[in-house]
């Protein structure tokens, strides 16, 4: 059909069909990934041992100022192993934030524990230390809480010193879920370096991906040893003898090859995420109806998943629909876990913050390989949506 014969609707549809989709957060594989993968094949190291695994572990331990790092198939497995190393077992309570990815709670359940959902603080959307102290001081929970898991929210660190002090007073292990927080700092110390053990995830949407993967970091040789042992079916030596029920949760050399190549470009990728985030900050500051997630003075986040807040749930829905029409891969972020069916019967101490933010978050495309033009399209879409005024409820 000649262009002059098209209706307005057809023009809009054609324009939309021509648009290139902009993904949310995808791997940025512009370093040595290909070369290192080829090396795995050439050297016949493609399974769950090999030189890249060892090197990747060493580099992550150095980055987080930890003595030990144990690689795993994913971040959920890393958390499960860290909890088992911490001694979490049948029926133990483990404090987790109500506002986190389900993996945090699921890892507790897989380790045999029960998640105890504690709300987050408004200044950081991370674990509310006052509420954690209340739980640990409650006589009905004394001797029943086996660990506390502070989670970095979209790459923003919790108030670690305060949480470490509270846990230390009750002699309860602290396991830091820094799944998406590589490169973030808390009071100038690296995320992944706090508490008795920490974990990273290297899944495909993280700043550093290994395709899939995770890591347990700890200063405790016995915990590192235990985590590694449980990740290899708790097998004793080369014999088919076992001293516990283990799992097969090791990272492969192929994944470690990708992870290592990614790590070499960490600074560059962090700088790109930061540049993208600051441009979004400026655009969002222009829209009264939108705000970026809170940032506390103790932290420098890594801008892993740039997320904004809308005033209402209805606004978030229309904004997401607006992005979808324009092939912009935005997505709603975490929701209160205790409000969801699998976790509804589990213990909790809530202050309403997690419930209030649920459904009002929208994560924006923020891959380190996002182009200026692509980001311009996202910002244009935000301005266009904002110009239409608040969503009628
Ligand atoms: C807070 C948090 N914990 C744990 C995980 C689990 O990591 P994985 O997806 O590698 O299992 C994630 C993954 O995104 C996460 O965001």
Please, could you describe this protein's structure?
The protein has helices spanning 8-18, 33-43, 51-63, 75-85, 102-110, 129-137, 160-169, 221-230, 253-263, 266-285, 313-325, 353-357, 372-387; strands at residues 68-72, 93-97, 114-118, 145-148, 175-177, 185-186, 189-190, 197-201, 214-218, 290-292, 299-300, 307-310, 348-349, 361-363. The chain has 393 residues and is an alpha/beta fold. The strands form 4 sheets. The protein has a 4-stranded mixed beta sheet, with helices on both faces. The protein is globular. The model has no long low-confidence stretch (mean pLDDT 95). The structure holds pyridoxal-5'-phosphate. The site of pyridoxal-5'-phosphate has 15 residues, from α4 and α5.
How do the strands and helices of this protein lay out in sequence?
Elements: H1 8-18, H2 33-43, H3 51-63, E1 68-72, H4 75-85, E2 93-97, H5 102-110, E3 114-118, H6 129-137, E4 145-148, H7 160-169, E5 175-177, E6 185-186, E7 189-190, E8 197-201, E9 214-218, H8 221-230, H9 253-263, H10 266-285, E10 290-292, E11 299-300, E12 307-310, H11 313-325, E13 348-349, H12 353-357, E14 361-363, H13 372-387
Parallel strand pairs: 2-3, 2-4, 3-13, 5-8
Antiparallel strand pairs: 1-9, 6-7, 6-11, 8-9, 10-12, 12-14
This protein binds pyridoxal-5'-phosphate.
Name the features:
four-stranded parallel beta sheet, 38% helix, 13 helices, 393 residues, binds pyridoxal-5'-phosphate, Aspartate Aminotransferase, domain 2, alpha/beta, Aspartate Aminotransferase, domain 1, four-stranded mixed beta sheet
């Amino acid at each position: 059909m000649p262009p002059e014969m098209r209706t307005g609707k057809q023009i809009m549809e054609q324009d939309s069909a021509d648009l290139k989709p902009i993904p949310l957060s995808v791997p940025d594989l512009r370093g040595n990934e290909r070369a290192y993968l080829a090396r795995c094949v050439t050297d016949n190291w493609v399974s769950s041992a090999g030189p890249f695994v060892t090197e990747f572990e060493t580099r992550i331990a150095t980055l987080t100022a930890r003595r030990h790092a144990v690689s795993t198939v994913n971040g959920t497995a890393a958390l499960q192993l860290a909890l088992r190393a911490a001694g979490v077992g049948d029926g133990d309570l483990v404090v987790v934030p109500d506002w986190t990815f389900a993996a945090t709670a699921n890892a507790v359940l897989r380790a045999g524990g029960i998640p105890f959902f504690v709300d987050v603080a408004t200044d950081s959307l991370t674990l509310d230390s006052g509420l954690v102290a209340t739980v640990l001081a409650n006589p009905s929970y004394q001797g029943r809480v086996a660990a506390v898991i502070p989670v970095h929210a979209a790459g923003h660190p919790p108030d670690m010193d305060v949480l470490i002090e509270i846990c230390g007073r009750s002699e309860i292990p602290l396991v830091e879920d820094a799944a998406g927080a590589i490169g973030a700092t808390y009071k100038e110390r690296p995320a992944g370096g706090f508490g008795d053990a920490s974990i990273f995830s290297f899944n495909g949407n993280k700043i550093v991906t290994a395709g899939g993967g995770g890591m347990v970091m700890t200063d405790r040789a016995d915990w590192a040893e235990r985590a590694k042992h449980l990740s290899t079916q708790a097998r004793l030596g080369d014999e088919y003898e076992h001293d516990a029920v283990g799992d097969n949760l090791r990272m492969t050399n192929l994944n470690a090859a990708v992870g290592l190549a990614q790590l070499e470009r960490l600074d560059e990728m962090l700088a790109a995420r930061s540049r993208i985030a600051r441009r979004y900050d400026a655009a969002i500051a222009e829209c009264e109806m939108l705000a970026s997630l809170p940032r506390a003075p103790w932290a420098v986040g890594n801008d892993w998943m740039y997320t904004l807040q809308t005033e209402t749930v209805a606004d978030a829905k229309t904004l997401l629909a607006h992005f979808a029409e324009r092939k912009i891969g935005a997505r709603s972020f975490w929701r209160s876990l205790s409000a969801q069916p699998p976790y509804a019967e589990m213990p909790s101490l809530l202050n309403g913050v997690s419930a209030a933010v649920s459904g009002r978050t929208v994560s924006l495309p923020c891959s380190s390989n996002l182009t200026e033009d692509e980001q311009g399209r996202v910002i244009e879409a935000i301005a266009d949506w904002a110009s239409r005024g608040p969503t009628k409820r």
